[in-house]
Design goal:
Layout lengths: L1 H11 L2 E2 H10 L28 H14 L7 E5 L5 H9 L6 E5 L3 H10 L5 H4 L2 E4 L7 E8 L8 E6 L2 E9 L4 E7 L2 H12 L10 E4 L3 H9 L2 E13 L1 H4 L10 E4 L2 E3 L10 E3 L2 E2 H10 L3 E7 H7 L12 H15 L8 E8 L18
Parallel strand pairs: 2-3, 2-5, 3-4, 5-10, 10-14
Antiparallel strand pairs: 1-7, 6-7, 6-9, 7-8, 10-16, 11-12, 11-13, 15-16
Length: 368
Amino acid sequence: MCTRIVNAIESEGPISFARYMEMALYEPGLGYYVNGLQRFGAGGDFVTAPEHGALFARSLARALDRMAGELDADWTLLELGPGSGVLARDLLFALEQPPARYLMLEPSAALRQVQQETLSELPTRLAKRLEWIDAPPSERFEGALIGNEVVDALPVRRFRIAGDGVEEGRVAWRGQGFEWNWIDADQHLRESVERIQDGLDRPLEPEYTSEVVPHLPEWLRTVTDPIARGIALMIDYGYPGREYYHPSRSSGTLVCHYRHRAHFDPFVWPGLTDLSAFVDFSALAAGAHRCEMDVAGFTSQAGFVLGSGVGEELVQVDDEIERVRLTAELKRLVLPGEMGERFKVMALTRDFDPPLPEFDLSDQLTRL
């Protein structure tokens, strides 16, 4: 992996961090998400909400069942980056009105194999609804899209505020390792930073360093264009713009994970270390408007899960051991010190106005 990145630098000069991040995560055969090594769960590098148990899927299923009542009977569900396949499995078991088609957008052959093994326990009536695809479908559908911890893995460009403008952090090779190479930002990056500053209460201070997804609206359009009528639920860790670019985050939000430990050096073990950046949900909302989608709801993961009413199921569990297990699982999903406030849920709709009670308990639209 290092050799391929070095070859790119020697051929082109210092490369953008977005290019470096894309290679480290997705380079065929070697990138973090495509090299076949275990990534999810206790034996991997991090645990997503679905890996904690089925409660998260059941909260989503409650929302989707309610929406399905407003959709055609042969509605479609598209999941972006299905990970280990656990969410798809638990959703299909939990849904009272399962989709006619469950599309799994997964270009990685290694991850497809993991997902197929996870989903092999589904009964035939549910398994036959699954379909793996390596790009968004060309035909439009009525239904829903789920993107759980997908946006955080989009490649980002690094920038910092200089005394006379904006600089871009590019990746150079200096014989023994990778290092930052700061140059004057191009027009596209300068305009992106200007838009960020326009939405803040005060300008970013010199030396402030952060990141931006360079083509977020274009990516969002690509994945949501197939929705003729329906909803997209985007779940990820992040903040609204004013909080994302708060003075206290003067080093940005870029974070790396290896064996359940976080570190902040993206040049350590490329291909073996997860690279991600928190999501700017204000930018995601702006991108949605450019895609002619409405931002119908925005809340914390705690607000969504508790608003779904899934916690009420716990009092109906007779087995004490199972009730204790589910209570611990619920706490991991909703407590502020766990995933409850760090993770957010955003609902984007197109030609669709379903009831969204999951967003009512902690409506945070005004924070955007």
